[in-house]
Amino acid sequence: MISSLSLAHKRPGFNAKNLEKRLPPPQGRGKPRTKGEGSRRMIENNVEKKQRAVLVAVDTGEYDAQVSLDELEELAVTAGAETAAKVLQKRGGFDPATVIGSGRLSEIAEFCKGDGADLVVFDCELSPAQMRNIEDACGVPVIDRTTLILDIFAQRAVTAEGKLQVELAQLRYRLPRLTGLGGALSRLGGGIGTRGPGESQLETDRRHIRRRIAALQDQLAELEKRRGLLRARRKKEGVTTVAIVGYTNVGKSTLLNALTNAGVLVEDKLFATLDPTSRALSLPDGREVLLIDTVGLVRRLPHQLVEAFKSTLEEAANADLLWCVCDASSDETDEQVAVTRRLMEELGVGDKPMLVLLNKCDLISEAPLLFGERTVLLSAKTGFGFDDLLQKTAAALAPTHRRLRLLIPYDRSGLVNEIMAGGKVFSQEYTPEGTRLDALVDVRILHKVAEFVLHGE
Ligand SMILES: Nc1nc2c(ncn2[C@@H]2O[C@H](COP(=O)(O)OP(=O)(O)OP(=O)(O)O)[C@@H](O)[C@H]2O)c(=O)[nH]1
Ligand SMILES: [Mg+2]
C-alpha cells in the first residue's frame, strides 16, 4: 500500500491529490484479499458504503483525454461512487491485452489490493479479453465508460419504454462480454455496472439473453409504432413541435418547467431526464407549440446508447425546431453545442432549424462570444431572456398561421367553422354585417378568407 502510494506520487499522471484526499479508512487496509472477496464485501456494504473507484484514461492524442477523464469522474459520482484515484497515461496506442502499460497496471493492482479501491473504471471501451486481464490483475470489478453510463441510465429510467431501452442496451453490451468470463459472473451481485433489470437474466445462459433481447426488441417496436402514430397524428393536426436538446445538466428540464410548469425532475446530476416529457407552450404570435424535453448528452456518447435511445431522440429529429441548450457558465460551452450538433447529424437532421440557448447566464458576468441572431442569452432560473427566446422561436418557425381580424358575412358562415377548426379564435362578435373575428388563421386557407380581412383596425 505504502509503496504503491509513494510510487503514485512520483509518477506523472497519477493524481496524487486525489489519492491523499480520498484515502480509504485505515481499518482493513493492507489486509490480504483473495479474488472475489472484494465483490462479496461490496454487496455487504453496498448500502452504507460508496464504492471507491480508480478512474483510468489513456491519452493517445485522439481527443482531450483529461477533459474526458474529468467527465468520467462526474459520471462515476453520479452513479454513486467516489474517486479513489485518477490515472492518465500517455501512450502511442492502447495495449491490446491490458489497454495501459503493464507497469501502470501493476501499480493500480497494488493500490486495489491494498484496499485503496474496490472498482476500476476505464474511460475507453474494453474488449472482453482486456476486461478479464485487468480484472485478474486487480482482483476487483473492472468496468468501462459505457457500462458506467448504462448503469446510471438503469438507475434513472422511469417509464416502461425507458426501462426497456436501457435493458436492451445493457444486454447487448454484456452479451459478448459474458463469454468465458468465468469468475466475473460472481460479481454481478450489486454495485456499479450491475444494477438494472438485467441482473437476474445475466445469471442464466446466453441463449436466454438472446431470447430476452428479441422479446425486448418486439416490445420496443410496438411502443415505437405507437409513438410513430402519435407523431403522425400531431403532424396531421398541424401541431408544431420544439425539442429541447443538449448536454446533460445544462438546465433543459428547468427551462421546460419554468416555461410550462411541467413538474419535471430537476437535479444537479447527470442524466436526470431519460424520458421525453412534452408540454404546450404559447408563443407571442398566439401560436401554440409542443415543447419536448429529451435525454441529456455527453461527449463520446456510446453508440449503443444512441441506438437504444433512438426512438426517444427521434422526437427531437422530428421536431420543427431544436432548442440546443448549453451552459454559458461552463468552460465547455462550445463543445456542448458541438456534441449536440454531431448527434443531430448522426440522426440525419443536422440541417434542422436550431436556436442555441446560452443558459445559466445568471452565473456569468460577460456575454459569451457565441452571441448571435440564432442565439438566446437565458436564465431558466431567473426567467431572464424568456421574451427574447419566445420571439426568436416564433420567428424561426415557418409561419403556419396568421393573426387576422375578419368580418365574415352570414351567408359564408361555413368559413367561420373552418377557421375555428384549423386555428384559434380570440374573440367573436355577431354584428348586423356578419361575424367579426380576431383569429389565428391557418395559412392554407388564407386565400379563402382574404376578401374578408379588415384592414387598418
Ligand atoms: N444558476 C442556474 N442554475 C440553473 C439554471 N438552469 C438550471 N440550473 C441548475 O442546473 C442543474 C441541472 O438542471 P436540469 O434542468 O436538471 O438539467 P437537464 O439539462 O435537464 O439535465 P439532464 O436531464 O440530466 O440532461 C440544476 O441544479 C438546476 O437548478 C440557470 O439558469 N441558472
Ligand atoms: Mg433533464
Automatic annotation (TrEMBL):
<keyword id="KW-0963">Cytoplasm</keyword>
<dbReference type="InterPro" id="IPR042108">
    <property type="entry name" value="GTPase_HflX_N_sf"/>
</dbReference>
<comment type="similarity">
    <text>Belongs to the TRAFAC class OBG-HflX-like GTPase superfamily. HflX GTPase family.</text>
</comment>
<dbReference type="InterPro" id="IPR030394">
    <property type="entry name" value="G_HFLX_dom"/>
</dbReference>
<keyword id="KW-0460">Magnesium</keyword>
<dbReference type="Pfam" id="PF16360">
    <property type="entry name" value="GTP-bdg_M"/>
</dbReference>
<dbReference type="InterPro" id="IPR006073">
    <property type="entry name" value="GTP-bd"/>
</dbReference>
<dbReference type="InterPro" id="IPR032305">
    <property type="entry name" value="GTP-bd_M"/>
</dbReference>
<dbReference type="GO" id="GO:0043022">
    <property type="term" value="F:ribosome binding"/>
</dbReference>
<keyword id="KW-0547">Nucleotide-binding</keyword>
<protein>
    <recommendedName>
        <fullName>GTPase HflX</fullName>
    </recommendedName>
</protein>
<dbReference type="Pfam" id="PF01926">
    <property type="entry name" value="MMR_HSR1"/>
</dbReference>
<feature type="region of interest" description="Disordered">
    <location>
        <begin position="13"/>
        <end position="42"/>
    </location>
</feature>
<feature type="binding site">
    <location>
        <begin position="271"/>
        <end position="275"/>
    </location>
    <ligand>
        <name>GTP</name>
    </ligand>
</feature>
<feature type="binding site">
    <location>
        <begin position="379"/>
        <end position="381"/>
    </location>
    <ligand>
        <name>GTP</name>
    </ligand>
</feature>
<dbReference type="InterPro" id="IPR027417">
    <property type="entry name" value="P-loop_NTPase"/>
</dbReference>
<feature type="binding site">
    <location>
        <begin position="359"/>
        <end position="362"/>
    </location>
    <ligand>
        <name>GTP</name>
    </ligand>
</feature>
<keyword id="KW-0175">Coiled coil</keyword>
<dbReference type="GO" id="GO:0046872">
    <property type="term" value="F:metal ion binding"/>
</dbReference>
<feature type="coiled-coil region">
    <location>
        <begin position="199"/>
        <end position="233"/>
    </location>
</feature>
<comment type="subunit">
    <text>Monomer. Associates with the 50S ribosomal subunit.</text>
</comment>
<keyword id="KW-0479">Metal-binding</keyword>
<feature type="binding site">
    <location>
        <position position="253"/>
    </location>
    <ligand>
        <name>Mg(2+)</name>
    </ligand>
</feature>
<dbReference type="InterPro" id="IPR025121">
    <property type="entry name" value="GTPase_HflX_N"/>
</dbReference>
<feature type="binding site">
    <location>
        <begin position="246"/>
        <end position="253"/>
    </location>
    <ligand>
        <name>GTP</name>
    </ligand>
</feature>
<dbReference type="InterPro" id="IPR016496">
    <property type="entry name" value="GTPase_HflX"/>
</dbReference>
<comment type="function">
    <text>GTPase that associates with the 50S ribosomal subunit and may have a role during protein synthesis or ribosome biogenesis.</text>
</comment>
<dbReference type="GO" id="GO:0003924">
    <property type="term" value="F:GTPase activity"/>
</dbReference>
<keyword id="KW-0342">GTP-binding</keyword>
<dbReference type="GO" id="GO:0005737">
    <property type="term" value="C:cytoplasm"/>
</dbReference>
<dbReference type="GO" id="GO:0005525">
    <property type="term" value="F:GTP binding"/>
</dbReference>
<dbReference type="Pfam" id="PF13167">
    <property type="entry name" value="GTP-bdg_N"/>
</dbReference>
<feature type="binding site">
    <location>
        <position position="273"/>
    </location>
    <ligand>
        <name>Mg(2+)</name>
    </ligand>
</feature>
<feature type="binding site">
    <location>
        <begin position="293"/>
        <end position="296"/>
    </location>
    <ligand>
        <name>GTP</name>
    </ligand>
</feature>
<feature type="domain" description="Hflx-type G">
    <location>
        <begin position="240"/>
        <end position="401"/>
    </location>
</feature>
